[in-house]
């Protein structure tokens, strides 16, 4: 029997497993992207992610010939990644390694070659078998439920993280999936859709995955701090007493700072104060102002983002409970490449009961834990209004917003879940949370807490239980 027939037979015998892998990669890889798959095999995975431009390399000539015939709209060629030489200036949005690292003889030679086709925005997606499954998979091979394969590098997550770090990558996300890799009515669904995402059970899953990105060089990071511009969006409703302080306390960020006030149906003189401040400080700052056409903070932020021209977008709540002086930390974190999405965290430094009552603090920690679980990344404060990302990444979230739909009336979860869907690296930025000096909160805590729970449940079905 030919090697090609063996590969086809092996796929058909374990089709349920391969289809789960394809479903996972479709979730992570945005359609119409530039995609390279290393160890493409028969080409089914590369075709499944619907690339705009898809390339697959593999050391098996028969597998490559099959892929070329089966998927003529994609490019395949015989290549050993350890000796891979990319075309000049060729880069990809995603590089996929599905159960490939374990078969590479010299991983430390292969990963730097992969790094050549990556930008800081490229996502390297690696799936591999949980080492705890080695005896089970060896037995499956023995009873011919799994095709005979060459000796495998049984790599743990720590092994792979170390190898990635040595090659100039850093891990963005990690996780596990697929507890029961065979099709069985009801049983497979229950184990893989209900139990597998849960703590404890998740540690037993067969498939482990890592999403990584290219680490930015220090010299490039420092250059970005001076070359990138910032837009600070300030939604304001009944905050007349804080408007001038938003300007007088604002730091200069990057090569240019743009400030956008979006007034949101106030009942005090907030709009008049915004116009006064615009007139008084317009010769010192690039200030844009508008009145909100819709309702709610999310609508105001979206309207401000649509007006923004800066490279990096910053949300500053006009109640000034997060100090404008701290925005430099957010800008530096994103501009330097330390993270793709900077999330304000008010729970590092001491917080007075006036600024955040005990009940609010408990609720905040609960939602932070829940979000950390759902997003597979550590978030200590989910409800801080100050969030920062590049305009390019925000536009990617907008383009992908249909996946979640209009489920978030506040806008914070829309951005967080959108960032997670795109595998953006989210990091907490500590801030000192200050009591209000003017006005009162517009939040109804109980009603909006129920709304947050509904949003978490809805998004969990879209991110965790897939």
User: Which consecutive residue ranges, at least 5 long each, have pLDDT under 50?
Assistant: none
Mean pLDDT: 90
- Secondary structure class reads alpha/beta
The oligomeric state of the chains shown is single chain
* Helix content, binned percent: 25-40%
CATH architectural arrangement of the largest domain: Alpha-Beta Complex
Comma- or semicolon-separated keywords:
466 residues, alpha/beta, Rossmann fold, Spore Coat Polysaccharide Biosynthesis Protein SpsA, Chain A, 7-stranded mixed β-sheet, 17 helices
Structure description:
- The chain has 466 residues and is an alpha/beta fold.
- It has 2 domains: 3-215, Rossmann fold; 220-463, Spore Coat Polysaccharide Biosynthesis Protein SpsA, Chain A (Alpha-Beta Complex), CATH 3.90.550.10.
- Helix content is 39%, strand content 18%.
- The chain contains 17 helices and 14 strands.
- The protein has helices spanning 3-13, 15-28, 44-48, 61-70, 107-115, 134-142, 157-166, 187-195, 218-227, 243-248, 270-281, 296-307, 327-335, 358-375, 391-399, 412-421, 445-463, and strands at residues 34-38, 53-58, 75-78, 94-98, 123-129, 169-177, 207-214, 230-236, 257-263, 286-291, 312-315, 341-345, 387-390, 426-430.
- It has a 7-stranded mixed sheet, with helices on both faces. A 7-stranded mixed sheet has the order 10-9-8-11-13-12-14, sandwiched between helices.
- Helix 3 links the parallel strand 1 (34-38) and strand 2 (53-58).
- Helix 14 (358-375) packs parallel to helix 17 (445-463), helix 15 (391-399) packs across helix 16 (412-421) and helix 16 (412-421) runs parallel beside helix 17 (445-463).
- The radius of gyration is 25 Å and the shape is elongated.
- The two termini are 37 Å apart.
- 38% of the residues are buried.
